[in-house]
Design goal:
Residues 3-75, 632-703 form the Ubiquitin-like domain. Keywords: Repeat. This is Putative E3 ubiquitin-protein ligase HERC2. It contains eleven helices and 70 strands. By secondary structure, it is mainly β. Among the domains are: 2-73, Phosphatidylinositol 3-kinase Catalytic Subunit, Chain A, domain 1 (Ubiquitin-like (UB roll)); 75-161; 357-478, Regulator of chromosome condensation 1/beta-lactamase-inhibitor protein II (Methylamine Dehydrogenase, Chain H, 7 Propeller); 483-617, no CATH class; 631-700, Phosphatidylinositol 3-kinase Catalytic Subunit, Chain A, domain 1 (Ubiquitin-like (UB roll), Roll), CATH 3.10.20.90. The strands form 23 sheets. It has a four-stranded mixed β-sheet with strand order 2-1-4-3, covered by helices on one side. Helix 5 (493-503) crosses helix 8. The longest helix has 13 residues, at 605-617. The protein is globular and about 100 Å long. The relative contact order is 0.04.
Length: 1134
């Protein structure tokens, strides 16, 4: 029988149909789409709103005559994983199904869950995974399990999901009842168990790279994730988080706007987590924008306040007077661009990332909107033209396509390229070709474009008919042709056999000159009747070219006569299904076949079939042709945009290419990266790294970083000793100083490549490499002090961070486990607690012990009990621990309720019982070597330990100092004294007078203090006018000899008994004990353009603007770098 139904669009347009009861719902839907002239897929719904299953028959769907159905057609929606080494796209089609492509690992392969992806409402993406919300409120995930692609552990909880938010590697879903379910990487927010009871009535969730922040219905905030790196711990500002309206996130910090227009921040200070310097200005804030490392707030009067990393946008002082009547702000990774009410633009931040727009300033008028790539901006003007600036190779230079950029409607960006949709639906692209800046291969298809989405290095455009066109790097989703494998996977066995035989049929004569290797393997199973899709190869030769299609009828007849059972009709239907997904061409590039020299192999499928069959019959493989050595031409760019073109032999090393680039670009050491962002191995030959002519490489030059091994204080050593380790821009390491303190790294020098960071114990170093492994070195012979990690080397994989006691190291792995080595009594042996060290979030160290905070906020300790290695006496109290601070021999933990638990040596602050009742609402703790000082929520201070209750040495701390300690902002500590900066810029000191506890002699000068630095026994304060005030021990506490020179001071560094100040002009002033670095006269002429200073116990090392290093102080403590000076020079000086 048949029934009659009406099908309506939401617009009101309708059509009536007669449908057979045995016909499929899918066929009914297709007829409706044709009759209603609807482009794209859609969903057919019952009057109740229920989506009809296309696979069912009309009868099975219980449709009846006169039913009124609705055809709901939605535009294709694109979502992308991005910013990883690989990327993927997910397309949500109009019928609620999903198609994915790109690299499999980050979600490009959804085959395992394809049957579940029905009636999808929305899709969210983390760095390497996707999560889809279905119409029934359940969730389907795919991609990397480590980044949220596996939700099995919480599957039963994912019901009535309303929305999903993603951090870098985790997801958080808000349910209909306001509760939250999380999954993915536990340290990055995938585990919310510690705050689960608080996650009620959640209204919205914001995510940094590493953590989540949820706003509750009452305006309070709950945070979880990585406390150290991502803002997962808001306990220090919890009391301030009331009536929160919205939250914004940088890479590693959060900023919340309150109902009264003020702002509260938390997370890593150098990523915007500390806004104390501008707190008084943050009033009546309207909105906040974030770059990777900074925030910019627009106030109601149109002015702007910024904070965070000064270089990357946190300091807008240079353009502050221009920031008036600001309407909106856009951010690149490291810079900001503000549109003013008059349509002009003001920029600030890192110049190479778009922070400097003076070259196009006059063109930036009547600006309508701004889009940003990683290090460039593109502005659409009112007339539809476009102005670009920033890194020229990342889209900051659009001159090559400027004449085409007319009537631009919207712009989308990958990391290093832009794509603009014009009014006529065409697309113009520019920027780095390997990041999608070249769309020429797809240009003919880019018509009637409705929207564009981007991954890190590819674009996908949705056309008016719902089709999708892609371009850019294949491994980032730039080639949707890979989906052809999915079509083959869906073929029936008979279809696979038939299609394979059809593709290998004679049809076209062989063309000479094409060389392939191992061609017979492609079809070796065809005659046996089994065909398996090889995803590495099938997408490159699976479709017959148009020249074969003309012979389809003839081939069909031949095959039917020869072997009717083959099922050619099925094969042809399968071929059509595949061809719908891929644009066929007469020839195909086969990059996976190894060929020598620059030749690329192109071959017709018919020719391939002939070559394969003939070679197979002869029992041989086709050989490659050898080509002579050659040279290639590459461009090498700096992030600033400066570039150089170089000719290099294919057999030359990558290292030699890098050195030539450094000389040509007049820069220091760095890492050479290919267009995908991968670091090239200097030991490999050019051809081994698969470099070719026209490649664009990036020379990434980092500033030198210094780390020093330090003793237990020079006051304990008759002959002070120390060593420095310099991490150079290219990831290599140079060491100098005393051999007994780790200055000899020659035994591991070959392993010290691509080093990311260095940690030091008292006598050894540990370097964390880019691949997550660790290299260690130190003095020869026992005790090793951590310099020998051979016993645990196999376990040191995927290391995230390293912490050090005086004689041991502890490495935190990506899975939350811990590996330790070094002097066993000082924490090098954690075997007694190894089974407890799971889901570790952070580690703190005293001189002889470690303490680890777990994901459930409990604590595990190990090492010397006299140094805090045994917390058993307070273990029951160590619950909901937020952070831990350490003195030399004790620990102090702040709990979630603001109370404090201490353990370790009582003489070093391990016993806080005398002040326990006062330790309430603690926000932060500072430690000296012998004591602790806690700042409470009301700005008062509680201190305990040796010297903590001693005011001017007369024991009246509680009477004098306590009354003055109000509105305390921060505390600094010498060995046995404290100095607190109050909100009004004044200073209060206490502790042992000969260690800086008595500042009465300079009290009247301590006004408008900005920061304080401390040596062992003295303090140095930088005032608002750039001058310096010192007090304490005569070894650094008296700066009178250089007082006139201490003007416009930017920062101060301290050894045990001396100070070194960097002035605004890059020069250095030193004072204190000459044996401890207080006399820099021998190197004064070299101390120009100093960028930063690092100190060992008894020496200093200064990094200059050109990356070279100047040292002074005790030679045994690293004060003489003469033996390695040649290695510490930049390339242009060699």
């Amino acid at each position: 029988m048949s029934i009659s139904v009406d099908v309506h669009l939401l617009s009101g347009k309708c059509v009536s149909f007669e449908a057979e009861a045995d016909a499929s719902v899918e066929s009914l839907k297709r007829r409706a789409q044709n009759a209603l002239k609807v482009k794209g897929r859609g969903q057919l719904r019952k009057p109740s709103g229920e989506v009809l299953d296309g696979a069912k028959t009309v009868r099975e769907a219980k449709l009846m005559s006169e039913d009124v159905l609705t055809l709901q057609v939605s535009q294709v929606q694109l979502v992308a994983t991005r910013d990883g080494e690989q990327s993927a796209f997910a397309a949500l089609l109009g019928d609620g199904s999903v198609v994915t492509w790109g690299a499999a690992y980050p979600g490009g392969d959804s085959g395992a869950v394809q049957e579940q992806l029905r009636d999808v409402r929305q899709i969210q993406a983390s760095k390497f995974a996707f999560a889809a919300i279905l119409g029934d409120g359940s969730v389907v995930t795919w991609g990397s399990a480590d980044c949220g692609g596996d939700r099995i552990a919480v599957h039963d909880q994912l019901r009535d999901v309303q929305q999903i938010q993603a951090s870098n590697c985790a997801f958080a879903a808000i349910l209909g009842d306001g509760s939250v379910v999380t999954w993915g990487n536990a340290p990055r927010g995938g585990d919310s168990s510690a705050v689960q009871d608080q996650l009620r009535d959640v209204q919205q969730i914001q995510a940094s790279y590493w953590a989540f922040a949820a706003v509750l219905g009452d305006g309070s905030v709950v945070t979880w994730g990585d406390a150290a790196r991502g803002g997962g711990d808001s306990s220090a500002v919890q009391e301030q988080l009331r009536d929160v309206q919205q939250i914004q996130a940088s890479c590693c910090a959060f900023a919340a706007i309150l109902g009264d227009g003020s702002v509260v921040t938390w997370g890593k200070a150098d990523y915007g987590g500390d806004s104390s310097a501008v707190r008084d200005q943050l009033r009546d804030v309207r909105q906040i924008q974030a770059s990777n490392c900074a925030f910019a707030a627009i106030l109601s009067d149109g002015s702007v306040v910024t904070w965070g990393n000064a270089l990357f946008g946190g300091d807008s002082s240079v353009v502050q007077d221009d920031l008036r009547h600001v309407q909106q702000i856009q951010a690149s990774n490291y810079a900001f661009a503000a549109i003013l009410v008059d349509g002009s633009v003001v920029t600030w931040g890192y110049a190479a990332a778009g922070g400097h727009s003076s070259a196009v300033h006059d063109q930036l008028t009547n600006v309508r909107q701004i889009q940003s790539a990683g290090s460039a901006f593109a502005a659409i003007l009112g007339d539809g033209c476009v102005v670009t600036w920033g890194n020229a190779n990342a889209g900051g230079d659009s001159s090559a396509v400027q004449d085409q950029l007319k009537n631009v409607q919207q712009i989308q960006a990958s990391n290093c390229a832009f794509a603009a949709v014009l009014g006529d639906g065409s697309v113009v692209t520019w920027g780095h070709a390997d990041y999608g800046g070249d769309s020429s291969a797809a240009q003919d298809q880019l018509r009637d474009v409705q929207q564009i989405q981007a991954t890190k290095a590819a674009f996908a455009a949705v056309l008016g008919d719902g089709a999708v066109v892609t371009w850019g790097e294949a491994k980032h989703g730039g080639d949707s042709g890979e989906a052809v494998c999915d079509a083959f996977d869906e073929l029936k066995h008979s279809e696979r056999v038939a299609l394979t035989r059809w593709l290998t049929a004679d049809g076209i004569k062989e063309r000479p000159g094409y060389v392939l290797r191992e061609a017979p393997e492609l079809f070796q199973n065809a005659q046996g009747g089994s065909f398996t899709c090889d995803r590495a190869k099938i997408a490159e030769f699976s479709v017959a070219p148009p020249s074969i299609q003309a012979q389809v009828k003839q081939i069909e007849e031949q095959h039917n006569k020869a072997n009717p059972a083959v099922g050619v009709l099925e094969a042809l239907r399968a071929l059509v299904r595949v061809q719908e997904m891929v644009q066929a061409a007469d020839a195909y590039l086969l990059p996976n076949f190894a060929v020598s020299g620059p030749v690329k192999a192109y071959v017709h499928l018919g020719e391939l079939a002939i070559l394969a069959r003939e070679a197979g019959a002869a029992g041989e493989s086709l050989a490659c042709t050898d080509y002579p050595a050659m040279s290639i031409s590459v461009d090498v760019h700096l992030l600033s945009g400066k570039s150089a073109s170089l000719e290099v032999e294919a057999d030359a090393s990558v290292e030699s290419l890098k050195r030539r680039a450094q000389i040509a670009l007049v820069t220091g050491r760095g890492r050479l990266l290919n267009s995908s962002g991968e670091i090239l191995d200097g030991a490999q030959a050019i051809k081994q790294e698969n470099l070719k002519s026209g490649d664009v490489l990036t020379l990434h030059v980092n500033q030198v970083q210094l780390q020093a091994s330090r003793g237990k204080g020079c006051m304990f050593a008759a002959f002070p000793r120390a060593a420095f380790a310099a991490l150079l821009g290219d990831g290599s390491v140079v060491t100098w100083g005393h051999p007994a303190q780790g200055s000899h790294s020659s035994a591991v020098q070959e392993k010290l490549k691509n080093v990311q960071q260095i940690q030091a114990s008292c006598c050894a170093f540990a370097a964390l490499l880019g691949d997550g492994s660790v290299v260690t070195w130190g003095p020869p012979g026992p005790p090793a002090q951590g310099g020998d990690s051979s016993a645990v080397q196999e376990k040191l994989k995927n290391v995230q961070q390293i912490q050090a006691s005086c004689g041991a190291f502890a490495a935190l792995l990506g899975d939350g486990c811990v590996v330790t080595w070094g002097n066993a009594p000082e924490g090098g042996d954690s075997s007694a607690v190894q089974h407890q060290l799971r889901d570790v979030q952070q580690i703190q160290a005293s001189l002889g012990a470690f303490s680890a905070i777990l994901g459930d906020r409990s604590v595990v300790t190990w090492g010397d009990p006299d140094f805090g290695g045994d917390s058993s006496a307070v273990q029951d109290q160590l619950r909901d621990v937020q952070q831990i601070q350490a003195s030399d021999r004790a620990f102090a933990a702040i709990l979630g309720d603001g109370s404090v638990v201490t353990w370790g040596d009582a003489a070093h602050g391990g016993d806080s019982s005398a002040v326990q009742d006062q330790l309430r609402d603690v926000k932060q703790i500072q430690a000296s070597r012998f004591a602790f000082a806690a700042i409470l929520g009301d700005g008062s201070v509680v201190s305990w330990g040796v010297g903590a209750d001693d005011w001017l040495g007369d024991g009246v701390f509680s009477i004098v100092a306590q009354e003055q300690l109000r509105d305390v902002q921060q505390i600094q500590a010498s060995d046995a004294a404290f100095a607190a900066i109050l909100r009004d810029g004044s200073v209060v000191t206490w502790g042992y007078a000969d260690h800086g506890g008595d500042s009465s002699a300079v009290r009247n000068r301590l006004r408008d203090v900005q920061q304080i630095q401390a040596s062992c026994g003295a303090f140095a304060a930088i005032l608002g006018d750039g001058s310096v005030v010192t007090w304490g021990s005569d070894r650094g506490g008296d700066s009178s000899a250089v007082q006139e020179q201490l003007k416009n001071v930017q920062q101060i560094q301290a050894s045990v008994a001396a100070f070194a100040a960097i002035l605004g002009d890059g020069s250095v002033v030193t004072w204190g004990d000459a044996d401890f670095g207080g006399d820099s006269s021998a190197v004064q002429e070299k101390l120009k353009n100093v960028q930063q200073i690092q100190a060992s116990d008894c020496a200093f090392a200064a990094i200059l603007g050109d990356g070279s290093v100047v040292t002074w102080g005790n030679a045994c403590a690293g004060g003489d770098s003469g033996l390695v000076q040649e290695q510490l020079k930049t390339v242009q000086q060699i």
